[in-house]
């Protein structure tokens, strides 16, 4: 009887062993579970708050650094502005002087716009005089910056900025035609003219006088004070 009981117990034990682990049941009250969940939520909220504070501190620090750099740049810009204003005050008279210089330059250009350097032209007239001919009188008329030259009375004469009238004397009748051609060949001269030779006498003896004239064109202007392109 004892053996049977033992065998049955073994069989029963084997049967119990083969059934596996028993299911577990959470017997904690809901309040305890809720309290545990709340603590976990608080931990996550705390971590989030710490992270947020860290980000805020980092942003504030970056803002301070950026603000410091901006202030430094502003201070530097203000310093440069002060230096430039001081230099501007130092050179405040420069525009006034430049304006006065420009006005003087313009006035000089206008005043000298009709300038003719007469000596080379007088020398040119003397150079083409026929042999034995000398100049007795010499008269120049011409335009000015404020008044134009008189219009030619002879329609065959070229228009110019003025004219030269001169009287010559010669012991013989000069070759007037060759002389007129020689005068017209001088740059700045045009429409040369010579009158008939007139016999005249004085205490020195007899001689021929010839009244002549030549038109002076604008090519004779020296233009020394004209503004060159690219200047000013």
Automatic annotation (TrEMBL):
UniProt KW Transmembrane keyword: yes
Keywords, in A-Z order: Membrane, Transmembrane, Transmembrane helix
TM segment ranges: 44-65
Name the UniProt record assigns to this protein: Fimbrial assembly protein
Species per Swiss-Prot/TrEMBL record: Cellulomonas soli
């Amino acid at each position: 009887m004892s053996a049977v009981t033992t065998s049955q117990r073994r069989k029963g034990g084997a049967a119990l062993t083969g059934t596996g682990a028993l299911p577990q049941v959470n017997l904690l009250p809901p309040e305890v579970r809720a309290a545990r969940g709340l603590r976990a939520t608080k931990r996550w909220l705390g971590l989030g708050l710490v992270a947020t504070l860290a980000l805020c501190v980092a942003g504030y620090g970056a803002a301070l650094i950026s603000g410091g750099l901006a202030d430094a740049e502003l201070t530097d810009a203000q310093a440069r502005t002060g230096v430039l204003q001081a230099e501007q005050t130092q050179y405040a008279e420069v525009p006034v002087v430049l304006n006065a210089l420009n006005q003087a330059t313009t006035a000089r250009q206008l005043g000298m716009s009709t300038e003719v350097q007469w000596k080379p032209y007088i020398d040119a007239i003397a150079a083409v005089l026929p042999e034995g001919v000398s100049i007795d009188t010499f008269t120049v008329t011409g335009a000015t910056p404020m008044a134009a030259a008189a219009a030619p009375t002879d329609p065959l004469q070229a228009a110019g900025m003025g004219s030269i009238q001169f009287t010559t004397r010669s012991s013989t009748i000069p070759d007037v035609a060759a002389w007129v051609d020689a005068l017209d060949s001088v740059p700045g001269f045009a429409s040369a003219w010579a009158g008939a030779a007139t016999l005249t006498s004085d205490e020195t003896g007899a001689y021929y006088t010839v009244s002549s004239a030549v038109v002076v064109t604008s090519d004779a202007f020296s233009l020394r004070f004209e503004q060159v392109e690219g200047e000013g």
